[in-house]
Design goal:
This protein is of the alpha+beta class and about 325 residues long. The protein has a domain of about 100 residues. About 55% of the residues lie in helices and about 5% in strands. The protein has 19 helices and four strands. Helix 6 runs parallel beside helix 8, helix 8 packs parallel to helix 10 and helix 10 runs antiparallel to helix 11. The radius of gyration is 27 Å and the shape is elongated. It starts with a helix and ends with a strand. This is HEAT repeat domain-containing protein. It comes from Cochliobolus carbonum (strain 26-R-13) (Maize leaf spot fungus).
C-alpha cells in the first residue's frame, strides 16, 4: 500500500522507495515496479540491498543488473554480502563473481565468512576455494569459524585442508558413537591447527566455540597446548571459562598457564556470573592458592560475597549454595569453620 501511494512521484523519490524496500520485496513485486517505473536508475546501493533479500536474491539481483545498462560495477563488498546471504549464498556468489569477470578476487575474509554461513558453509567454502588462484593459507579466523560451525566442524576442516579439491570426505554420520565422532573431529581440528605458523591465540570467541562442542574439554586442552606462548590469554576468555565451564576445565587452564597471568582480580569475576557451581569453583581455587580469597574481596557478585573479619579470617556467602562458610588461615593451610 505504501508503494502505491508513491506511484506518481518523481524519479528520485521512486529510487529512494526501491532502495529502502528492495531487500524485502518478493521478486514478482520488484519486477512489476521496475516495469512500471522505467525511468528509475539502478544504483550500487540498490544492488547491495537486493543482495540481502531473504527469498530470491539471485533473481532480484539479476533483474536489477540487467536493467542497469552495465552502469553498476560488481564490488568486493557486494560479493562478501552475497556470501553472508542465507537464502541462495552459493548461486548468488557465483553469479556475482562471474559478472565481475575476474575483477573481484577471492580473499581470506571471504573464506572465513563462508565458513560461518548458517545455511551451506561446506558447499560455499568449497566453491570459493575452487575459484582461488593459489592455495589459501589457513588462518586463526578460519579455525575459529570451522570450530564454531559445530555440525560441520569435521567436514569444514577437511575442506580447508584439501583446499576444496574433490577428495573423499569422512562424514560425521559414518561413526556409530558420539565418542568416535568427537575423536575424529578433534583429529581434523588438530591437523588444521598444524597449519598455523605461530599457534593459536586464546580469545573469547575460540573459547565460546569450544563450549559448543560435545567434547568441550578436548577442544580447550588442544587449544591450550597449541597456544602462542608470547601472547596472554584474553581476560574475556578466562572470565568466560570461569563462568560457563566445569571445574576440570578450569584446572586444565591452571595446568597450562601461570596462575597470576590468568586469575587476576578482574578475570576471577567470571565466577560471579554462575548460578550454580560458584562454591565448588571458588573452594577449589582457594585450596590451591592462599591469595585467591584476597582477590575476591570488595567484589560483591550475584553468586557470592566475601568479607574479611580479622587477621587471616574471612567468610564467604554463597547465595545459591548454602550460605556462609568461614575460612581461617592457620600455619600453612586454610581451616573451614
Amino acid at each position: 500500500m505504501v508503494l502505491v501511494n508513491w506511484w506518481k512521484v518523481d524519479e528520485e523519490s521512486k529510487k529512494m522507495v526501491l532502495t529502502a524496500n528492495v531487500s524485502e520485496l518478493p521478486l514478482e513485486v520488484a519486477e512489476f515496479l521496475l516495469d512500471s517505473w522505467e525511468d528509475v536508475k539502478i544504483t550500487h546501493e540498490m544492488i547491495a540491498k537486493a543482495i540481502g533479500n531473504p527469498t530470491q536474491p539471485v533473481g532480484l539481483v539479476t533483474s536489477l543488473l540487467n536493467r542497469s545498462n552495465e552502469s553498476v560495477t560488481i564490488t568486493y563488498e557486494m560479493v562478501l554480502e552475497a556470501i553472508r546471504n542465507r537464502a541462495q549464498p552459493v548461486d548468488l556468489t557465483k553469479f556475482l563473481l562471474d559478472r565481475s569477470e575476474g575483477k573481484v578476487e577471492i580473499s581470506h575474509e571471504m573464506i572465513e565468512t563462508a565458513l560461518g554461513n548458517g545455511t551451506t558453509p561446506v558447499e560455499l567454502t568449497k566453491f570459493l576455494l575452487s575459484r582461488r588462484r593459489d592455495d589459501v593459507k589457513i588462518t586463526q579466523e578460519m579455525v575459529e569459524e570451522a570450530t564454531g560451525n559445530r555440525k560441520n566442524t569435521m567436514i569444514l576442516a577437511q575442506v580447508l585442508l584439501s583446499q576444496g579439491r574433490q577428495e573423499a570426505m569422512i562424514a560425521p554420520e559414518n561413526f556409530d558413537t558420539v565418542i568416535e565422532r568427537n575423536r575424529e573431529t578433534m583429529k581434523w581440528v588438530e591437523l588444521l591447527l598444524d597449519e598455523l605458523d605461530e599457534g593459536i591465540t586464546i580469545t573469547e570467541k575460540i573459547v565460546k566455540f569450544a563450549y559448543l562442542q560435545d567434547n568441550e574439554i578436548s577442544f580447550i586442552e588442544c587449544f591450550l597446548r597449541r597456544r602462542r606462548k608470547d601472547l596472554p590469554i584474553a581476560a574475556s576468555a578466562v572470565k568466560y571459562v570461569l563462568r560457563h565451564f566445569p571445574r576440570d576445565v578450569v584446572q586444565i587452564l591452571l595446568d597450562h598457564c601461570e596462575f597470576d597471568n590468568v586469575f587476576t582480580k578482574e578475570t576471577i569475576k567470571g565466577i560471579g556470573g554462575r548460578l550454580l557451581g560458584a562454591k565448588d569453583m571458588i573452594l577449589s581455587l582457594i585450596d590451591q592458592r592462599r591469595d585467591v580469597i584476597d582477590r575476591l574481596l570488595d567484589d560483591e557478585q550475584e553468586a557470592y560475597a566475601v568479607e574479611k573479619l580479622g587477621r587471616n579470617l574471612y567468610r564467604i556467602n554463597f547465595r545459591y549454595e548454602g550460605g556462609w562458610i568461614y575460612y581461617k588461615w592457620k600455619e600453612d593451610r586454610w581451616e573451614i569453620k
